[in-house]
Amino acid sequence: MLYVSLYFHPFTKCLLRVMIVYFCNSSTWLMFLESEKHFPSLHVS
Question: Out of the domains of life, which is the source (predicted)?
């Protein structure tokens, strides 16, 4: 099990990074746009 995790570690890290970036880009932007739509006063620049 340890060998497997060590062997797949770089690939897993890369895959996780891609998934996190994709998830953040889609989910966070959707949530941000939704919150902007419902609560415009939340975003103060």
Answer: Eukaryota
**Contact in structure between 43 and 36 (CB atoms under 8 Å):** yes
Residues 13, 21 contacting (CB under 8 angstroms): no
Distance CA 14, CA 23 (A): 14
Q: What does the block give as tokens for 25? A: 């880009």
3-state secondary structure of 4: helix
Mean predicted confidence (pLDDT) in 3-25: 78
Among 15, 17, 35, which Cα is nearest to 25's?
Answer: 17
Place of tokens 């889609």: 26
